[in-house]
Amino acid sequence: MNVGGEAYRTIWLAEDRRTVEIIDQTRLPHEFVTLALRDVNDAVQAIRSMQVRGAPLIGVTAAYGVCLALTADGSDGALEVACDALFGSRPTAVNLSWALQTMRKALAEVPPSDRVTVAYETAAKIADEDVASCRAIGEHGAELFADLIRNKEREGGTEPLNILTHCNAGWLATVDYGTALAPVYTAHDAGLAVHVWVDETRPRNQGAALTAWELGQHGVPHTVIADNAGGHLMQHGRVDVCVTGSDRTTGTGDVCNKIGTYLKALAAHDNGLPFYVALPHSTIDWSISDGIADIPIEERDEREVTHVSGLGEDGAVITVRVTPRGSPAANAAFDVTPARLVTGLITERGVAPASAEGLAGLYPERAE
Amino acid sequence: MNVGGEAYRTIWLAEDRRTVEIIDQTRLPHEFVTLALRDVNDAVQAIRSMQVRGAPLIGVTAAYGVCLALTADGSDGALEVACDALFGSRPTAVNLSWALQTMRKALAEVPPSDRVTVAYETAAKIADEDVASCRAIGEHGAELFADLIRNKEREGGTEPLNILTHCNAGWLATVDYGTALAPVYTAHDAGLAVHVWVDETRPRNQGAALTAWELGQHGVPHTVIADNAGGHLMQHGRVDVCVTGSDRTTGTGDVCNKIGTYLKALAAHDNGLPFYVALPHSTIDWSISDGIADIPIEERDEREVTHVSGLGEDGAVITVRVTPRGSPAANAAFDVTPARLVTGLITERGVAPASAEGLAGLYPERAE
């Protein structure tokens, strides 16, 4: 997608075709800064510190992290150490382990001398597949939006389609295009009138910082709201549909996503509104069926709750404390929305009910 | 309650028995500053800028605002102008109009020369009644907590009673003691083991700033969480009960409270947890029965969403922008929780179901 009129992906190779470059997402929306990852530790650090974030982009970054490790040392031992370090950099997103497994499988039979070439080819393939997935999600989701707009017009509605989203599942969370926002971009680019309610998504403000920024860069009408506001807007008919991404989805359709997603799904359900989750197949964890019991939820530093970063009046990014000294904070990063609250899953293969049957319909090769 | 070991109310008279003094709540939790209100405009400004906030305290401040107006000019005209200005200072809390009506009624038959004396007597009576109400709410609520603790112990639980609250309905929201937090203080002072999950309550952070501060001052164990986190904690058995205050409650038990309350009530309902609302009778609006349709919701400045204030590293309070320039924001201050999601209302007269029948049982003199 475009930044200041120039086309970017969120991760790409430098001219040396070895160094990996990323957008430092911790600096957005106030500064647009790119960073070079020169070794596997840089990749681990970029994932851990959330310079890159979003389940699909984490997976691709981990894949390139393997490439960087093998550039330094192509041995089996180095591959193991790199995969372990990358696997431990974030605990929740299943794409991370999926990407690492894909890399291991591609490299297993390859002699150390050829591994660098094969690794970069495989990482590039994972990245390109992610882009293709996101484009397909955008097309399937935009068809849903078009239907909702037709219904709305039939009932005499004149407002744009009001879409609520939580956190950032836009192009910044993927390699390009996004998951939850892909249908928004596709619909907007096709001339449909859409407007996005952007949950700010405390404590890290990915909505206010990233989603608002990328929608603004692309010219999509949007309004930032506190995470508390969505239920009220739904009660008053000001939301037509919710769409979020997912960090891990069980084979039965339970959706793990940014903390607070569950609360919006409850509100959508209480107000009879559709709640969709957009995700590529790499986000599905076929091995588990009870999201609340089985998905480990990352507990992050309490400082993300006690402090907020933003742009000071002098143009510098400043961090301020918002809680009293001596008050502890807790910071679970994700929650799980039970499948019963999800209207449908939008994947690269189409839209299905959030259930084992629904997913089996889209991915018959996985159905047992 | 105590601040640094010294007992305070949130509003009191200076030694001249005319000037009204308050705690400037916009400076908490980082600075403890008191302010003198010398005329009605100071009172209007204190309410509008949320130097005083919380439905009961707004009502008492408005009552003293009438006193200040009459000190300058005891005429019928001055009384009218003052009441109009005070009535317009915040739109949602019904205590404001209730307190102004009480003042008007008390002053209606009083000759202008005696009005100042009667006004201060009436305002003091409103304040003292609020304190008595809050103490009674504390006792009724603490009995509920004691029951919940007994149940928990019977089931082998060893953790303290985990209470989730939203916004600030503590002593800072009232004259003393609080509404939602009164049962917490009563239980804690009686030696019951309680722990409070404090929603930070964006966009103004009254939970992180005020609730955490006053619980800390009183020594009550608590943990600050993002507004997004409560549903996840409930899913994992880490919340036993929710208690919030109310800015306006319909005669049928619909509860208007700080934006986001509805989302927590939905989560409590989905997890089979009790959700109580604590309120004095002055918060009940007997004239309406449909909270969502009939309660006007204040829309506040979008700057509260786009900017956050906190303590910088140099010890000064700084405001930073958290959204990209050019992204608009919306800022509804309250939402309405339908009575069907409320387990019970805790008032100064006891605990009742959130329904017309429940309220009629507590207030038979209001039942038609």
Under the CATH scheme, the architecture of the largest domain in chain A is 3-Layer(aba) Sandwich
Cα separation of the termini of chain A? 38 Å
Estimate percent helicity of chain A: 25-40%
Per CATH, the class of the largest domain in chain A reads Alpha Beta
Give the chain pair forming the largest contact, with residue counts: A-B, 67 and 67 residues
Proportion of residues in extended strands of chain A: 15-25%
In total, the number of domains of chain A comes to: 2
Task: State the assembly state of the protein chains.
Answer: homodimer
CATH fold assignment of the largest domain in chain A: Rossmann fold
Low-confidence stretches of chain A: none
For this structure, what is the CATH homologous superfamily of the largest domain in chain A?
Answer: Translation initiation factor eif-2b, domain 2
Number of strands of chain A: 18
What order do the SSEs of chain A take from the amino end to the carboxyl end, as H and E?
Answer: EEEEEHHHHHEHEHEHEEEHEEHHEEEEEH
Structural class of chain A: alpha/beta
Number of helices of chain A: 12
Largest sheet of chain A: 7 strands, mixed
Q: Give the strand order, joined by hyphens, for the main sheet of chain A.
A: 8-7-6-9-12-17-18
Note the overall shape of chain A.
Answer: globular
Radius of gyration of chain A: 20 Å
Mean pLDDT of chain A: 95
